[in-house]
Amino acid sequence: MEIVALIAIAVFLFTYALIVDERIHRAVAAMFGAAIVVFIGIVPWEALLDHVDFGTILLLMGMMIIVNTARGSGLFEYIAIRTAKLAKGSPIRVLILFALVTAVVSAFLDNVTTVLLLTPMLLYIAKVMKLNPIPFLVTEIFASNVGGAATLIGDPPNIMIGSATGLSFNEFVIHLGPIMVINMAILLLMMYLIYGRSMKVDPEEREEMVRTLNDLDERAAIVDRSLFNKSLVVIGFVILLFFVHDRIGEILHVVLPFVDPAMGLEPAEVALIGAAILLFWSRQSPEEIFEKIEWPALFFFGGLFVIVGALVETGIIANIAAIMVENVGSTGEAMFIVTWFAAIASAIVDNIPLTAAMIPLIQDLGATMDVYPLWWSLALGACLGGNGTAIGASANVVVIGIAEREGINISFVDFLKVGMLVLFVTVAVGLGILWLKFAM
Amino acid sequence: MGYSSSLIQRKFKDIVGKRYDSVLKEYSEFLLTEEELLVPEIRSILVPLDFFVHDITDEAIDVLSAYEATISLAYITDAGVVEILERALNQSSTEEFRAKKEEYGRELLERTAAKLEEHGLSTQTRMFVGHKGDDVVQMAKNHDMVALCRRYADGESTDASISPIVLRICQRVETPALIY
Lengths: 440, 180
Hints:
The complex is a heterodimer of chains A (440) and B (180). Chain A has 440 residues and is mainly alpha-helical. Chain A has helices spanning 3-21, 26-39, 45-51, 54-71, 75-86, 91-108, 111-129, 134-148, 156-165, 169-195, 203-215, 218-221, 225-244, 248-255, 267-282, 286-291, 295-313, 316-327, 331-349, 351-365, 372-385, 394-405, 412-438. Helices cover 78% and strands 0% of the residues of chain A. Chain A is built from 23 helices and no strands. Chain B is of the alpha/beta class and 180 residues long. Chain B folds into two domains: 1-38, no CATH class; 39-179, 3-Layer(aba) Sandwich (Rossmann fold), CATH 3.40.50. Helices cover 50% and strands 17% of the residues of chain B. Chain B has helices spanning 3-16, 19-28, 34-37, 58-65, 79-88, 91-118, 134-140, 164-172; strands at 44-49, 70-78, 122-130, 145-148, 177-179. In chain B, α8 (164-172) links the parallel β4 (145-148) and β5. The longest helix of chain B has 28 residues, at 91-118. Chains A and B meet through α7 and α22 of A and α1 and α2 of B.
């Protein structure tokens, strides 16, 4: 093996170890790794621009602008209070409703923001009910990862896969949406069986809880009514646009004949168009909104793309793909390997760097086999694999981190026990459905 | 802190940054704190009175009526003033001052107690010479709440400010304080 290949592997492993350990900020670790492979010429400038997936970075940026602008209106707090009131004092209903709301919001908006804004409300409700908050928090984590897996924009692995492959929003909804609906039902049943017995509230406390929650005024959460309405309209429009992004030309051609009917919009373009409309319409200060863009996350993605690009440039990915092709007999077998490898590795490494490394590998496999089903296997494994451990996905870290700050300890091992169970059941169900679709 | 716990905190810091603090601030606008969630049990309320408190307002009575508590009305004559008068005047003049003060105090106590009892509140009264700040702080330890007129221990100023003694008492007592 050439020395540059060894250096590329060493940088890759060293950076991923730093990302797992996080003693150094993940964005800094990724940028430093990228700097090494660029400095010694493994990834030249022209190749760097090819390897950095600007589709992913711009889509994330657009959605960050939309979410951060909408956040200022109190939209998420409003949703949290409305959900809490709908539960009418029943702990099981709180668990189910918050899980469903988390899953739906996570499917269309960023998981981290979703759980960051819903978790304080869940903790408050658990306090009012005098119940252990852990079942609610753990369910929220799983729901966020399951819900996020349902769409192209729901979870970073899907965004990366969608951008790298050109798969449409609707394809994600068609292939992964039903799996995630089934998995949500299974998840809620599992949570009920595991935690249901510990969720009893006596009628007096229930009455007091209803009274306390009814005292909350969801209208008071709306800081800016005009921005609230505009945010709802723009988010609705953006979601609608995602559903038709690949055939927007056909629709526009009807009213604007000069538009090419074959034209489609990339998901990143949809997000940036939505961001531009919301900023223009709401008249929010662009400086303030742009300051809220999570630049470290974007640089983290950029650095990862370059580090993985070094593996591509040195032929390592091609070699691994060749070994896989030699040893894999059928599409079904490849699906099985990709799904379970992605799921288990995601639980250990964090699903974003895992997906960054897997995408070029599957692209290389595409030279010799039909990789279309493998993209769904990767999405399924990477998103649901995040449920396995406390560090498997960003939503896990955020919820467990908040809990710890509020004096609630969800230990790594305790989470692992439930997380691995959820991982194996949901991934097995998902793989089974994909298998029936593509390998039978 | 174990490795996994510090790992989570490191990752949390890197992923969330300072966003959680701003979320908490936004929620604090409309969610009750843990302290506010506990409904304090109020069984006795101390209401200090003096020469500058002429009446108890209807709004204050409405609030006091919300609790099933005994109201302890305490009329306090400032010991410092009495001491200065004793030094400056002869004994009979001092006695006359005391008698007039006591008469005024008794009248105020009776009038206030009657007004509170009209609203169904049970009352206790007492009158003594003491320190208007320290003695209230001391007595508050045996009560669940203190209700203070903003003019208490103030003087006859006409502005709407709160007496400095009242503010000092509020800072020092551990029980909830109501200013009317």
